[in-house]
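Support case: user asked for a sample of complex input and structure output to validate their parser. Sending the pair below.
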Amino acid sequence: MSAVLEVQDLSVSFRTEDGRISAVDSVSLEVGASEVLAIVGESGCGKSVTAMSLAGLLPRSARVDGSVRLDGVELIGAGKRTLRSIRGREIAYIFQEPMTSLNPVFTVGSQIGEVLRTHLGASRRTARARSVELLKLVGIPSAERRVDDYPHQLSGGMRQRVMIAMAVACDPKVLIADEPTTALDVTIQAGILDVLRGLRERLGTSIVLITHDLGVVADLADRVAVMYAGRVVETAEVHDLFAHPQHPYTTGLLGASPAAGRHADTHRLAEIPGLVPVLSEQPDACTFADRCGQALNTCTASQPQLTRGEHGLACWNPVGVS
Amino acid sequence: MNALEVEDLVMHFGPVRAVDGVTLRIREGSVVALVGESGSGKSTVGRCIVRLLEPTGGTVRLAGADITHLSRRQLRPHRRYVSIVFQDPAGSLDPRLSVGDIVGEPLRLMRRKGNVADALRRVGLRPEVAQRSPHELSGGQRQRVSIARALISEPRLLVADEPTSALDVSVQAAVLNLLADLQRDLGFACLFITHDLSAVEYLADEVAVMYLGQLVEQGPRARIFGTPAHPYTQALLSAAPVPDPVAQRQRKPVLLGDDLPSAIDPPDGCRFHTRCPVAVDRCRTVVPESRVIGSDGHQVACHLVEADGSGPDVRTSEGVAR
């Protein structure tokens, strides 16, 4: 399978008042055509920064190194014009909070239409007709009427559907969904996950799904990359990852989520002691070592590299291997 | 003896009917989860119980004493029986006080004796933390401080309002374990307010489900998760994704539509009828009374559920009787 999006040795660091902070360290990822890659991890693991850096959305205080290729075209270091023509057209984003991403003083139809007129040079009339189609595609009932609504007239779930309609307006190759359902209730979330699944099936859109929710991963992802402290520590096909997790952090995450039918009388949730480190520079060691129950001397002395292949792993002492 | 009795509780904010007739009991030493989505009124119920709000109507009895309309002064002797832990530990801890002062404050206000160091130890913090400021602590540590403060007066009822929702999953696990341990060891009753169904299954003895200001179903945990009777409960359970790709991909969430009615102008009849897949005419006009449908205290407010508990299951495609 040829990759639509290829990320190689992506590193991101930020200049702050307290000096440089490393957010992403040598991350390599591949996303195939109509594939859903989930990037999972807890706050501060670098998953959102990774997503933002793909199309150059980071502020100037960020230093980005490495390579991001979309259909062979290099995006890191690309000029403003190139990026502008790619963003929204070839790579589109949806974010957690749809209300802050929509302009409150324009109707949803004019906001979707703007994307079409800017990128595809559509006329007002075509843009409007296409907006209605897009609203239908994302499951908004009475789309002909809803196209003239302002964002405040829509519920949170509807707004997120509008965001998705805007994102896929130009039929992008890659959709980056950064915690798309985190702000929504579960009954609404189920509908949004369904829309994303439909896009992949009907339009063949590749999706990079950023989330902390393992239930959402289990629902939608084809492959998963687990991030910890700026590095990908494990990556595998979704069933393989849940059935045979090998990194102690992955097993820790899976064991920490309460499972169906488990009550505290008879079960205990796995805890991961300690805190995620804030790193000024990436050490030549496993960054999880000081929280890991099975760390060896090697783990603090040398950095494990992510192995290549179907099930990639960056660990000196994997789970289930003695 | 019940730790808490809430009878026909009503809380209106101007035109907003946030809580509209909630009746709920919590036995000494048991954990009741109050479940619902945003806007269901579950947090408002919690705030009425600890009398951060004075209810518009109904009664709240703590360990037998009616506190519904007591003045601040009159409330004082009852304060020690109930404590609350909030979702956001950063916002509920005074940044100008030391951790020791925060945890010891209830003792000072109640003119009681107690040991701050012991209280900190009990929640897994070192007594030295007493000298620190809240901002020096991590999110998980701060939530432990809130719990220590809540428990130092040895309350008979703890209201925990989304205590783990702002925390990462690994930290969440530690706080859930801690709450389970403390509840078992100290024997306080707990109203666990949350939208996280997996946490409910882990902690609760009983579950009460809220929709738009009213309880639609309540009963023992195994009942609610095993054979939920109300269409909303069924939909809610079916929509929450489970962290297991094999199981999750066999599930079919019941999609309810995104348009949640407003609490300003709630629907007539059953408030859920606008989103209910099996609603009939009666549901649109007649308010369903809550009825007991089992010997174990299982109650449901739905016209379509028979006295023996049989009724529609919206999770099966036709919505036929189970």
